[in-house]
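hi! just following up on the protien thing from before. the input was this:
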Amino acid sequence: MTDKFDKTPADEPPADSAVSKGAFIPPEKIKAIPVRHWGRWVSGVVVVALLGMLVYSFSQGDVNWGTVGDFVFDDRILAGMGRTVLISVLSMLIGLILGIVFAVMRLSKNPVTGAVSWLYIWFFRGTPVYVQLLLWFNLALIFPVLNLGFYKDEMVDVMTPFVVALLGLGLNEGAYMAEIVRAGIQSVDEGQTEASHALGMPTGKTMRRIVLPQAMRVIVPPTGNEFINLLKTSSLVSAVQYNELLRAATNIGSTSFAVMEMLLVASVWYLALTSVFSVGQYYVERYYARGSLRQLPPTPWQKVKANLAFGRPKGGVA
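and the predicted 3d structure came back as:
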């Protein structure tokens, strides 16, 4: 009887084989087949078709696109666009400063400062910004003369369209920023404040050096959204005679009888401005997200490359 563990010569590998020589045989390369996402293709085709229908509808409308192109870089339009950016940036700075002040006041243990902060936020968030602009614009009906003791002047001379726009937008924005800053401050663990106080740091320095820097990660995203919204809301100041982008466009449209064309010109510039500031907002958020994420999200350009054929790894998995 033959033992089952006995090997016959046929079972043994050839003497000159690669295995007998101890050579390494690499494994066969894995061929990964990407998953077909047919739903993406179908939805993409539908969206492109709808977009094409929209573009075709506008191309067939009674719009003089040549006039739109002629006035996009008109000096009056560019000057109005500059005033829009100016009033938006200044109003946002005022709103940010007031937001920090009133947020700290509301979180204070002093009942007087807390009540004043709550009343400020309650009033300016509870009334439309358009109404607030009209109140400032017509303030001379209540106070004909501004008398501060060291300064006296007619209220109509003090409340210029620029001042009205700055006060109306800045004070309204301060109420919203106060709530955003308050949420950011409260997102910081109380142990940070307790540790800084244990080291002998006063309350003011603790807020400036410890709490606010950590709260910026929560404050920055909604602040960027508020600025984009403020940039569009600034069009309301045309009602108080401030010659910003929308008012400049409507003035040209009323004299040239190209009303719709000039509104499209204003829309082009609003879209351009919001797009530029949105990109800036993204990179500011990315900067303050360092340390809180293991890996920063890809930039828009990296996302574009990843969705293009040349951005995919060669011969790899999709």
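The two ends are 58 Å apart (CA to CA).
The first strand starts at residue 145 and ends at 147.
cheers
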